[in-house]
Specification:
Elements: H1 2-26, E1 54-58, E2 61-65, E3 75-77, E4 80-82, E5 86-90, E6 93-98, E7 103-106
Amino acid sequence: MLKRKSTKKRTAFKATLLLLLVTILIFPVFPVMADTPEPKAISYEFEYLDRGLIAAKVNSGVFLSWRFFKEEVTGYSDTGLTGAVFNVYRDNALIATVTDSTNYLDPDGTINNIKP
């Protein structure tokens, strides 16, 4: 008699397991991937920026600063990005060549050298 109950329990367990397996196959728990929408392409809007040169009179001369465009960067050093070489002029005369930054302090510059 003890064996019969055990066999009935096993049969009931197998039937329940089979029913659960069939239910999962017919009605999957996770949504089907084909029904998911395609992700939209991300577009970025960029503004046009020029060199953006600024000049500011400071106690030790005239401080110049400008933008470095991403296309110009070829590497970096201990002092900054590398790539483009910038020639700095004052009154149509070359006063410096900057190779490793986007700023320069002109110690001899005056307010009269700053032109809009």
